[in-house]
Amino acid sequence: MRGHGFLLANYVAGDSLVHRAPLALKFLLVFACGLASFVTVDWRMSLGMLGALCGLFLLSGAGPKRLWGAVRPLAAVLLVIGLFQWWQLGAPTAGRIVLNILVCVVAASLLTATTPVHKLLDGVVRAAGPFKRFGADPERFALTIGIMLRSIPYIAGTFADVRDSARARGLERNPRALVLPVFITSVAFARQTGEALAARGLGEADDEAED
User: Fold this and answer.
1) How far apart are the first and last CA of the chain?
2) Residues 101, 103, 109, 115: is their CA dihedral positive or negative?
3) Model confidence over 104-118: pLDDT tens digits?
């Protein structure tokens, strides 16, 4: 089964300025880009932000191939969104909406491409620390994100492999040939993950022990 980044670029080891930047600054950049996507009203500003982020991505050494790999899964969706918004609100608004989505995706990909997963999860634990007073468990929150980062590429890769296999057998138009193997594999993966968590004292077994 081949892995897939699925919207976010995988970590690329390096010693660039972006790699050495504090994790809090990278989190702030992603947050600022998300906020800007709501308040920006000019597509030219969105284009400028996207260009700057793409420049940072390339300067980090991640490469254009990884940048395209993070954007490519959205291409068809963005085309549909852009055409619909063009029809409803005109070209400038459609361009702004599409560009703002790309800004958010590239900003998040810049974070994941220049930050090892364990440091990213440690940062999540620290950021969620203040919520412990409300009963939140920062470690479990980080664990959930870690499982998500591992599961989505696995399932996406499984679907790609099943699709290629079905195409080779001339069954690419048969929904059962695509959905059923992916469903079975995903359930098996979920069970294995659950058993691994239970073996480490996490999940349902841990909850029952606390009760």
Assistant:
1) 39
2) negative
3) 888 888 888 888 877
pLDDT-based confidence at 60, cuts 50/70/90? confident
Contact between 66 and 12 (Cβ < 8 Å)? yes
Task: Report how many domains make up the chain.
Answer: 2
Determine how many CB atoms are found less than 10 A away from the CB of residue 46: 22
Q: Give 114 or 161, the one with higher predicted confidence.
A: 114
Establish if 74 belongs to a structural domain: yes
- Interatomic CA distance for residues 19 and 62, integer angstroms: 10
CA 90 to chain centre: 29
Is residue 188 domain-shared with residue 156, that is, in the same domain? Answer: yes
Residues 6 or more apart whose Cβ sits within 8 Å of residue 107: 29, 30, 33, 34, 53
Question: Taking the CB of residue 83, how many other CB atoms lie within 10 A of it?
Answer: 12
Q: Record the pTM.
A: 0.67
| Residues 104 and 148 reside in one and the same domain | no
Tell me how far apart the alpha carbons of residues 178 and 6 are, in angstroms, rounded to a whole number.
Answer: 18
* 177 touches 166 (CB < 8 A): yes
Rounded to the nearest angstrom, the gap between the alpha carbon of residue 44 and the centroid of all alpha carbons in its chain is 26
Q: Tell me if 124 is assigned to some domain.
A: no
